[in-house]
Amino acid sequence: MKNETVNSGYRLGLDIGGTKMCAVLLNGEHLVEHYRLSTPKEGPRHFWIMAVAVLKPLLERAKKDGKNIIGLGLGIAGTIDFRKQKITNSPNLPFLNGIKPLEKLTENLKPSYPLFLDNDANCFTRAEAVLGAGKKFNNIYGITIGTGIGGGLSLNGEIYQGAHGGAGEPGAMLVDLENKITLEDAYQKLTQNNSRILAQEAYEGDPLAEQIFQELGEYLGMIFANIVNIVDPGIIIIGGGTAAASDLFLSTAKQVMTEYIENPEARGIKIVKSKLGELTGAIGAALMVK
Amino acid sequence: MKNETVNSGYRLGLDIGGTKMCAVLLNGEHLVEHYRLSTPKEGPRHFWIMAVAVLKPLLERAKKDGKNIIGLGLGIAGTIDFRKQKITNSPNLPFLNGIKPLEKLTENLKPSYPLFLDNDANCFTRAEAVLGAGKKFNNIYGITIGTGIGGGLSLNGEIYQGAHGGAGEPGAMLVDLENKITLEDAYQKLTQNNSRILAQEAYEGDPLAEQIFQELGEYLGMIFANIVNIVDPGIIIIGGGTAAASDLFLSTAKQVMTEYIENPEARGIKIVKSKLGELTGAIGAALMVK
């Protein structure tokens, strides 16, 4: 592989979500080591200390293996101003709003290698496109359904950022104009920030919980159809905590989606679950390092 | 210019819409001649005779100038199966459903040059991207609002077709899930296939007509926001008959759009009218010829 020939070091990936911080160490595309901690929510000071702490075991492993770190990719939940390398809106980690995370990480980590920034849903999509369920496709749309809803579009192996870095925000799409409800609004209202317990109730046969996932499926189907009608990806890949319960909503989503896809050729599009599991975001962050 | 150096012939472009057939003759990117006829709706036989007739004055001009035709691009209103080069759905010209238009044109025209096919909204977007209002942008979203609503996405000078040729169908997007109303449905219901007369009434101060354009503006704003949240173009360019009356709905559309764009950087996106006017589609068809 080119990366291994030209540069024999390891790549670091750090994925910071609303619940967990995951870090991975890659040798080429091979996972060497990973580590995970809960995301501290008390405020910035403890947050950055922990962001460095989650990397420590991996830095030690690289040292033990006699390998350099050639770069670190950071994936973070929130909207990013890529020009300024600044977080403009992180609903689940509000103390990050207005922060330049690579500067903060540099201060605390003092790295001798370059750092790269992206949002977590783009990292998810990148990893699935390069190493996961999207490997055989040129156009991949990834959607993360977890604490919030995120998305990313990969075209020919590269994340498509758009003109202002604002591409791939399915959560912001309106599902109800009259009542001004976005997919993210509808998702939060339906799941009440507790989709795991709700899924358990649905699996135990609670009709109200089942109904909620049906409704979620309808909203997602509408948004999937919108995505196909605009960018017509070869595959849609879903991930995040709620995707684990996809059998509760995915068949409804597919049914609604198919009904509203304009091009008959595009109606057979597959929607599949992430192949790389919990580490997808961190792997996708590491893959930013070239 | 490269095209002129390598190949000194003229390019033909033919745009077939629900109302008019427009043909252009290009020398490089320069318009040499154009011609226009009404689209016959009686059935296929007369239709293909007229499609050849609209090209005749241009073929004669090329001959007079001592120039070869190096190719013809055909833009047509409807959904296209690009793999089979077949029209799958043409709501305004239903006798074209299931037809391979390039085969039909070849039978009737007997050309000695290659033919290329695309839908009319992609042709509109291509022309505006290469020669019109999108010239200075890498990512352009074009929307045609005329007999129906179409769209196209141009990335770095090329039309993005998607995995199944189904990209850029804003008319198919849902604006109301509960009542299963797409933008195209809402548009047809609001304008009753008569947006020109409706616009005149609104300009004369008819409150009902004004109200209808306000509603159209709200729906379009919702769809513009969806487009920005998914593909984040550098500019949105509108064309088609109804776009001429854009002062009746565009400020409402922009207001609704801005409210629902997730990324603050993307909120300043410009929505402008086509620069090339009535011939845009035919020019974009000719530009398919390389």
UniProtKB/TrEMBL annotation, chains A, B:
Alphabetized PANTHER family for the sequence: BIFUNCTIONAL UDP-N-ACETYLGLUCOSAMINE 2-EPIMERASE_N-ACETYLMANNOSAMINE KINASE (PTHR18964:SF149), ROK (REPRESSOR, ORF, KINASE) FAMILY (PTHR18964)
Family: Belongs to the ROK (NagC/XylR) family.
UniProt name for this protein: ROK family protein
